[in-house]
C-alpha cells in the first residue's frame, strides 16, 4: 500500500462536472493499481480491471477461482486477507470522499465501501442525459466571454468545454450519425434562441432519450404558445386598429375618456392604457406649475392616472417592511427610487430581461466602484427601459432622471408624486458610468 500514501485526487466533484471528475479519477486509480475496488465481477470479465487479476492458485482451493478465471472482489478479499483488502479499500474510499465538494460529501458520508460510493455517484450524476449536457455546453460556449480574464484562463475554460463536448460527441464517419447530429444542432440552435418563458418546455424536450426532430419541436413550441395565450389577461387584440370608418366625422372635442376622464379621445385610444398608440415623434409642450393641483399641462391627454401613481407609491412604501422587490416576489433586495442616480441600476436578475454582457464600473457616492456585468430591459409602466445589471450591488436603484427621460415625463415633488410630460429633466449625478 506504499503507492497509496499521500494519494489525493486533483478534481473536485461539484455535480455538473461529473464527466471530468470521472475520467481524471479513473486514471488516477488505475495508475495506483486500485481501480479494481470500483469494479464488479462483470466489469472485470470485460477487461476493465488491472493486469494480474487472474488466480494462479491450485484448482479446488478454498475461496479461490479456478486457473484462468477472473476473481470477484469478494474472492480477492478472501485470497489477499480481509484486513489488507479492507484497509486498501478504505484508503480508496477516503481518496474518493476527499474529492467531493462539501455539499455533496454531506449526503454520502454513510457509504462504507469504495465501490458503493462509486456506483452511488454514477447513479446520481452519471445518468444525466447526454442531450441535456450537450445543450448546456453549447449554451455555455454561446455565452462565453473573456470579460477581462487573463487569456490563458479564458482559453482554458474555452478548451475545456470543447474537450467535454468531443467526449460526449466523438468524431464519426457514420453518415447516419452525422445526419442525426446535424438535425440535433438545428434543434439545439432553436432551443437556445427561445425566450425564458419557454424554459420549461426546453427542459421537457431535453429529458427525452432521443431528441425530437426540428419539425416535432416546432409543433411543440406552437402548442405551448397557443396554450399560453389561453391564460393571458385582457387581450389587446380588440384594440388593434379597426380601419377608417367613412360616412361621418366625429368631433374629438366632445369625446370623454372613460378611463382617465380627460377630453379629446375615447377609452380605446387612451395613451395611458395603450402607450403604443402614442406617436413616436410626439413631444409634450406644456409648462410645469407647482400650483395647488401640483400638475399643469397644455394637453390633458398627457397625464398619468393618480390611481396608478398611488399603487406605485404604496408599493415603494412597503419595500422597507417586506424586503421584497417592487416587480417580483422573488426579489430579495429593496427597490429605491433615487433622484441622484444617472441610470437604473438593478441587482436582482429577475427584474431584467434580455440581459447582454457588458463591462465597466459604476462609481457610487462613497467612491466605491461596482462592477457592471450586463445591460438588460426593465419593464416600467408597460415600457421596456434599459438598465445596468450589477449583481454585487446592495439595492435596486430606479433613476428618476432616466425614467423621466425615457418616459418623457417630469417628476414634481409636492404632497404627492406627480408626473407631467416635459422635454427634459436635469439632475446632478451622484452616480456616473
Automatic annotation (TrEMBL):
Annotated Retrovirus-related Pol polyprotein from transposon TNT 1-94-like beta-barrel domain residues: 336-405
Signal peptide positions (record): none
Name of this chain's protein: Retrovirus-related Pol polyprotein from transposon RE1
Ranges of Gly residues composition bias in the record: 48-60
Organism: Cardamine amara subsp. amara
A Pfam family: Pol_BBD
InterPro entries named among the record's database cross-references: PolX-like_BBD
Superkingdom classification of source: Eukaryota
Amino acid at each position: 500500500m506504499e503507492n497509496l500514501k499521500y494519494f489525493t485526487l486533483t478534481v473536485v466533484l461539484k455535480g455538473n462536472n461529473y464527466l471530468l471528475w470521472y475520467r481524471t479519477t479513473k486514471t488516477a486509480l488505475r495508475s495506483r493499481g486500485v481501480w479494481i475496488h470500483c469494479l464488479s465481477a462483470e466489469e472485470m470479465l470485460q477487461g476493465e480491471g488491472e493486469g494480474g487479476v487472474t488466480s494462479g492458485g491450485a484448482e479446488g482451493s478454498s475461496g479461490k477461482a479456478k486457473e484462468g478465471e477472473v476473481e470477484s472482489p469478494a474472492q480477492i478479499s478472501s485470497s489477499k486477507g480481509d484486513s489488507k483488502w479492507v484497509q486498501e479499500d478504505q484508503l480508496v474510499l477516503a481518496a474518493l470522499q476527499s474529492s467531493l465538494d462539501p455539499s455533496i460529501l454531506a449526503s454520502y458520508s454513510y457509504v462504507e465501501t469504495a465501490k458503493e460510493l462509486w456506483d452511488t455517484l454514477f447513479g446520481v450524476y452519471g445518468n444525466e442525459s447526454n442531450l441535456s449536457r450537450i445543450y448546456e455546453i453549447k449554451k455555455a460556449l454561446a455565452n462565453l466571454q473573456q470579460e477581462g480574464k487573463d487569456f490563458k484562463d479564458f482559453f482554458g475554460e474555452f478548451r475545456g468545454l470543447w474537450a467535454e463536448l468531443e467526449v460526449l460527441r466523438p468524431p464519426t464517419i457514420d453518415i447516419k450519425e452525422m445526419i442525426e447530429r446535424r438535425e440535433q444542432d438545428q434543434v439545439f440552435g432553436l432551443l437556445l434562441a427561445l425566450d425564458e418563458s419557454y424554459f420549461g418546455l426546453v427542459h421537457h424536450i431535453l429529458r427525452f432519450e432521443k431528441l425530437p426532430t426540428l419539425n416535432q419541436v416546432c409543433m411543440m413550441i406552437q402548442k405551448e404558445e397557443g396554450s399560453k395565450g389561453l391564460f393571458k389577461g385582457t387581450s389587446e387584440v380588440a384594440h388593434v386598429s379597426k380601419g377608417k370608418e367613412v360616412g361621418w366625422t366625429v368631433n374629438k372635442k366632445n369625446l370623454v375618456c372613460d378611463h382617465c376622464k380627460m377630453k379629446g379621445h375615447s377609452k380605446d385610444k387612451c395613451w395611458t392604457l395603450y402607450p403604443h398608440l402614442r406617436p413616436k415623434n410626439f413631444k409634450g409642450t406644456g409648462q410645469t406649475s407647482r400650483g395647488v393641483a401640483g400638475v399643469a399641462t397644455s394637453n390633458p391627454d398627457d397625464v398619468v392616472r393618480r390611481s396608478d401613481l398611488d399603487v406605485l407609491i404604496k408599493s415603494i412604501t412597503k419595500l422597507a417592511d417586506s424586503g421584497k422587490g417592487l416587480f417580483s416576489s422573488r426579489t430579495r433586495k429593496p427597490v429605491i427610487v433615487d433622484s441622484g442616480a444617472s441610470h437604473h441600476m438593478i441587482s436582482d436578475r429577475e427584474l431584467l430581461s434580455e440581459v447582454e454582457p457588458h463591462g465597466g464600473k459604476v462609481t457610487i457616492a462613497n467612491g466605491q466602484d461596482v462592477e457592471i456585468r450586463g445591460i438588460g430591459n426593465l419593464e416600467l409602466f408597460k415600457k421596456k427601459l434599459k438598465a445596468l445589471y450589477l449583481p454585487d450591488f446592495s439595492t435596486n436603484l430606479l433613476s428618476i432622471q432616466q425614467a423621466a427621460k425615457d418616459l418623457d415625463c417630469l417628476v414634481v415633488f409636492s404632497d404627492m408624486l406627480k408626473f407631467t410630460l416635459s422635454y427634459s429633466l436635469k439632475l446632478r449625478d451622484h452616480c456616473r458610468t
